[in-house]
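Section: Multi-chain targets

For targets with more than one molecule, the full set of components is provided together so that the structure can be written out for the assembly as a whole rather than chain by chain. Components appear in the order listed by the source. The example entry contains two components.
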Amino acid sequence: MKTTVYSAKNIVTMNAQKPDASHVAVRDGRILAVGSSDEVATWGPYELDEQFADKVLFPGLVEGHAHTMEGTLWRYVYCGYFDRMDPSGTTHRGNRSIDTVLEALKAAEAKMDDPDSPLTGWQLDPIYLDNKPVTRAQLDNVSATRPIGVLNASGHILYANSKALELASLLKKGVNHPGIPLGADGLPTGELKGPDAMAPVSVHVGMSGSIADVDERGLRDFARLCVRTGVTTVTDLAAKLDPDSVDMMLRVTGEPSFPACVVPLRFFLGLSPKELVPEVARLKKLSTDRLSLGRIKLVADGSIQGYSARLRWPGYHNGAPNGLWYVTPEQMLELYELALEAGLQIHTHTNGDQATQLAIEKLELALRKHPSNDHRFVLQHCQLADRAQFTRMAALGMSVNLFANHQFYWGDEHYNLTVGPDRALRMNAARTALDCGVPLAVHSDAPITPLGPFFTAWCAVNRLTRSGRVQGEHEKITVDEALWAITMGAAHSLHMDGLVGSIEVGKRADFAVLESDPRAANPEEIKDVEIWGTVQGGRVFAAADV
Amino acid sequence: MSKFGAQCKVDASLPQQMSEPLPVTIIGGYLGAGKTTLVNHLLRTAQGRKLAVMVNEFGALPIDEDLIEAQGDDLISIAGGCVCCTFGSDLSAALIELGKLPVRPDQVVIECSGVAIPSAIAASVTLLEGFAPDGTVVLVDAETIRTAAIDDYIGDTILRQLADADLAVINKADLVDVPTLSALESWLSDTAPRAKTIVSEHSKVPLDIALGLGATPIQSQQMGHADGLFDSIALPCADPLDGEPLAKALTDPKLHITRAKGFFDPIPDGPRKALHIVGHRWDITDSPPNAPLGIVCIGVKGQFERDLIRKTAKEAL
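Its structure, encoded as tokens over all components, is:
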């Protein structure tokens, strides 16, 4: 039984009983002791490892809502507006104009050998580029002979060149689809809005299937991003989990050098509630130390900026009709009842406040039938919930994982267009959630926004929009509260707070290795905490080496 | 396939029919309105028509067990040469797969999820080469629809579904009294303004009403209508005619035509055309070469006005 003791400049434990320490002893990948060198020495002989002597050890961060497919997307050309780090640690400069996007695509095109293979880009967000969609003609300038497809940051719009449209038999007059705008020449402009419009073209631009599900290399790449962002436990929030995919995930996460625990949630699709619940119960038993299975993801509505979220009165600020349900209330109730009965947890995506209301009401009914003291059903995003809804959520034992990053990336849009000034103030109302007693996590929804819990914490603490406005002063939370949300809060939302989330005896030896103490950072600088790497299950991963 | 040799022989003698896009009928309506029952009814009464049924992935397997011949991973084989498969978030991909089947189906039937908006599904169908929407049938639960339509959560979804309907089927009509039924019909004339409304019990909507007359309407009509619930008439169209005024005349609600399909030679002279009518909507497209002349109109027995239809058609030309 080998014991390793790490000394550190400081160990921030997130355990109120012993908030700070200088030494942590690790045995069998778990935390044996935390304290002074004398205290940890009481456990007997150990090997002292001083590589972190000038570092701060912090609990390994927990990202409670991400999608591992980000790892796959990095094989495509990054077309985003903001600087963003790839799995190798290279930061790609943001593209501040359409011209730089096109130059990036051209540069990638010039390196391609096969003249017919598709060129794929991702994360383009014209909202920041004069709000003009990219056109077919612009992409034809990159290449007129190979198919090109560029994915919007939302993942719900695709921009295609003429060749891609031609391959999909869409480069013709008379196309009549609300998601396919036509130019003055009667031909599609190249913008394809919504999954239905995108589908015929996606297959021709290298996005068939792979975009929705992570593949082997993508999963490894995503884990490298985890190391660079201090994350040791990460969800894959909407996985299909077919047998091949489960086998692959078990194999890859089981590799000795795989640096994170992945928590994939089985998406409610393809099976009826009566079939899904036993299937997820079966999956749960396949769990390992680095692949935690057995949770369900249910999507109730769409997105706010896509105008497909379900809003209560007065609806969308710009008058758009109410959004779409992706599940019937009856199916939601049935699934809640069956999952409660089987002791399985459900995470429900609700963006609009009407979807949130429905989830609250249906869970209340289901709980009457199957009382459960610690179900921790989580509302994911839950961006527009008001105080009354958080109060009911607390009463019902629900948790929330708020999309804090949205405030920064699209807060101005929400203020001006989608929901208007009043409701923009209460979006992702972390203060109210905590005041009402709802256990809180905050998330990035990577790849929609970049993985990086310290940035997400910064968003919840400062509530700055991209234009620099504070939106919802009252809903700010403190640095300590935000740090709790990205560790213990997120762990609690996964029923993993007994296992990870703090540096505490008995827990998994998961640490984020930092250059400074985030508690000491100015609130506006918390996103800039430097990350050296992680320790996961007692294994050391330096960002510089992965 | 050998079991249905006779049917295949008819197909083989009409190779030109292969060039027509596969007609896709969309069956919508809220949970419990009877969509699955209708699908099973259509499969039972398919009479040799090879239907490819696509069901959304949320439900339990919707096909009655006695109809299933074999069950593969992705496809269920059903008595009579029909098949059933499921679709999830990517209907287009599922349709493309369907197009690759060794035996080409005659028609596709999509059973929507209870919250799907049929026009969105129809729009995606139009994007796919080789497929064409062929009517949206929206089922209505006669007992619950009025309450559901004002529900805070799903009311607007139900109203959007009805607004998309070409045929609105008032189902479970046996569960309501006559005044309720007629109030419902009048409500639907506002709520589903584009739709022809028909009444049914246990989703027993005649196949030809729900799905049309198939690729060869004249032949289908000559085979007769087994269930005797509806009536039809063939307009010979021996002489060239102007399709648009005829189409407009035939969609007049007074005629109670639920569907019509057939082929005619146009004025001015040009290649043969096909006329499609579903409810109050019509479409004129290119015809496969050598398709037999004549347009068949069908409607529910008791409403359908043969003489008025003949007279209207004559006046329109």
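The longest strand of chain A covers residues 3-12.
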